[in-house]
Amino acid sequence: SPPGLLLLTSFLLHVEEGHAGPTQLVCDNRLIQKYIGEAKDMEKRVGQCQALPTLSCPTVLPLVDFNLQQWKSKSNETKRQEILCDLALLVGAVAGAQGQVTQECGARQLSQLYRHANYFLLLLQTFSCEAEPWEPDCSPRSMEQTHITGIFLTYRQLVQGKLRFFFHDLAKDLCK
């Protein structure tokens, strides 16, 4: 299908841009630290943009906070599904914000954030043992946001939190 082909092409382009493959990302802890650093940098840079507009149509962001004890009790597949839901909502929020921001600095940062979040979304879809394609069948806890900086904060929290702990858990099985 054309949308699937577009996703595959996008994924392959990102792999060629130097993004890591699934096993390398999970087994080399320096890579997730690099992505956390990039998330912090993007958040800092968007905060330096002059006169960022308030979004006229609020964007819906996932609430990505979590309880570590509850998180540890979940299966890796449940964690993956939860992160996929958060990422799908986040990618949609970024796309919606992109349509409202014409200011160059903010638009450039949103474009970069879209690429990064979409990369993780595509990557996590490849982690499944199931043959059928992932369909977003979820409604994560969410909130409305009218400030662009909130989108970047949510992304950083997701990468620093759930994603980092998920990769840590996967490493126990994959990196022997």
From TrEMBL:
It is found in: Secreted. One of its GO terms (molecular function) is cytokine activity. Transmembrane segments: none annotated. One of its GO terms (biological process) is positive regulation of hematopoietic stem cell proliferation. Keywords: Disulfide bond, Glycoprotein, Hormone, Secreted, Signal. Residues 1-20 form the signal peptide. SUPFAM superfamilies: 4-helical cytokines. One of its GO terms (cellular component) is extracellular region. Belongs to the EPO/TPO family. PANTHER family: THROMBOPOIETIN. This is TPO protein. The gene is Thpo.
